[in-house]
């Protein structure tokens, strides 16, 4: 049985994007957050009952994308940036897909791994 909160057209799915940063931007944000905040017993307990991937996808990625959009449109409010994020999500997915045959994502992921392993 599928969770009704995650069905198509739900507010959670409608707001779980990275706005005009698209799917590629969402992947970069998620990978960077995972590198910064390695899974631990404390983190798992804090976000329970969600697994880390769902917490990142539905909460952290949209939150960070909203803050980045607010910075892009400075001065603006986080509420206005969130509205921009939601309104621009479809365009972002078309402009910045993850499967566009370039190596940009792999290069960014590699830099994240090297950067965070050194600390």
UniProtKB/TrEMBL annotation:
Pfam families: RTC4. Residues 13-97 form the Restriction of telomere capping protein 4 C-terminal domain. InterPro entries: RTC4, RTC4_C. It comes from the Eukaryota. The chain crosses the membrane at residues 28-50. One of its GO terms (cellular component) is cytoplasm. Keywords: Cytoplasm, Membrane, Nucleus, Transmembrane, Transmembrane helix. It is found in: Cytoplasm; Nucleus. The keyword Cytoplasm applies. The keyword Nucleus applies. May be involved in a process influencing telomere capping. Belongs to the RTC4 family. This is Restriction of telomere capping protein 4. It comes from Pisolithus tinctorius Marx 270. The lineage of its organism: Eukaryota, Fungi, Dikarya, Basidiomycota, Agaricomycotina.
């Amino acid at each position: 049985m599928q969770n009704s909160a995650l069905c198509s057209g739900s507010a959670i799915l409608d707001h779980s994007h990275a706005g005009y940063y698209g799917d590629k931007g969402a992947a970069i944000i998620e990978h960077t957050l995972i590198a910064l905040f390695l899974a631990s017993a404390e983190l798992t307990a804090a976000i329970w009952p969600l697994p880390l991937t769902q917490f990142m996808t539905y909460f952290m990625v949209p939150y960070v994308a909203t803050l980045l959009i607010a910075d892009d449109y400075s001065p603006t409010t986080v509420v206005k940036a969130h509205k921009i994020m939601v309104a621009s999500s479809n365009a972002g997915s078309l402009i910045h897909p993850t499967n566009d045959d370039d190596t940009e994502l792999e290069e960014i992921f590699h830099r994240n791994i090297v950067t965070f392993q050194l600390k």
